Amino acid sequence: MTIDADALIKAVRACNVVGELARADNVSAMLSPIAGRRWDHNTVADDLAELESHGKLKRAQGFEWEGSEPLPKTRIAYVLPGD
């Protein structure tokens, strides 16, 4: 994991509180005041997926993806379990 897990969780929570989808782009923007810098969207997406694999995040209910390719990892939105 590249980014501090606690900072990522705080950024996901901040996105959810203001009604933004906690996707890599929005989480990266929220990390700026929390972690002191913005992160590359792919790095954020990878770390969000890792937190999901550890049960610290879950995917937000989403729309039906109609593309023939999988949903890009930077477009996956997350929420905290129990939210």
* Radius of gyration computed on alpha carbons: 12 Å
Q: Quick one: biggest sheet?
A: 2 strands, antiparallel
CATH architecture, by name, is: Orthogonal Bundle
CATH class: Mainly Alpha
CATH superfamily: Winged helix-like DNA-binding domain superfamily/Winged helix DNA-binding domain
Strand elements, count: 2
**Low-confidence runs of at least 5 consecutive residues:** none
Distance between the termini: 24 Å
**Spatial arrangement of strands, main beta sheet:** 1-2
- The tally of helices reads 3
Can you give the helix content as a percent range?
A: 40-55%
What class, by secondary structure content? Answer: mainly alpha
Report the mean per-residue pLDDT as an integer: 91
**Portion in strands:** under 5%
What is CATH's topology name?
A: Arc Repressor Mutant, subunit A
Question: What is this entry, summarized?
Answer:
It contains 3 helices and 2 strands; from the N terminus they run αααββ. It is mainly alpha-helical and 83 residues long.
What does this structure look like?
The protein is mainly α. The protein has one domain: Arc Repressor Mutant, subunit A (Orthogonal Bundle), CATH 1.10.10.10. The protein is built from three helices and two strands, in the order αααββ. The protein has helices at residues 5-17, 24-35, 41-53; strands at 58-59, 78-79. The protein has a two-stranded antiparallel ribbon with strand order 1-2. Helix 1 packs across helix 2 and helix 2 (24-35) packs across helix 3 (41-53). The longest helix has 13 residues, at 5-17. It is globular.
